[in-house]
Amino acid sequence: MIRKRAEVHPDWLIGLLTGIMVASILVVLGIQWYATTQKPENSFGELVTKIQELKDGESTFMSYTLPDGSLLVSFSAGEDFNTKRTASEDLFTEESCTASVQIPESCGDAPCLCFCDGSYKYGYENACIEEGKCHSFITEKDLSFADTDCDAGVYREGPDNGIFTLFLKREGNTINFCSTKDCPPKEEETKSEESLVAVTENSGEIFD
Description:
Layout: H1 10-53, E1 59-65, E2 70-75, E3 81-82, H2 87-90, E4 100-101, E5 112-117, H3 127-130, E6 132-136, E7 144-147, E8 155-157, E9 163-171, E10 174-178, H4 187-202
Parallel strand pairs: 7-10
Antiparallel strand pairs: 1-9, 2-5, 2-8, 3-4, 5-6, 9-10
């Protein structure tokens, strides 16, 4: 008895391939959504927790997720973030934070840290007003933020690869944000010591 070979219907095959393509697209979109939305929000939450747990003199670090086009910025005393420097003035400094960012109402007058989506739609000035997630440290109103990359406070734009290492150290009521393990850098301390040596040598006195 001769058996007939099973026939594959083109419509069934097309439907199978279409289903696979749709599933693949949904997986890719899900990964993109997690990478650009959920993962940065989780990273921001982890940062807030680390700050709250830091005791005076303690240091920590973390891999911080901040997509290109996003912004991590601090506010204090209910005021907008403003470096009050022009682009030409910024050329003569080692910092790169010439910016003005409006404070969202949710911050109030407490020390506040925000993760905002500036992208290319709003620009950074309105980034935290339009698309921002903030945390107000209302239980520590004396808290302040310092950033080795910006003298006006914390100001970090998302890098191209969307991730960087962030070092933190608490000194009194100040939370230092740094790009290196030497946090905060000891440059100022070294300069002070050098100045003291120069003064004592010029006066003919050497102190131990």
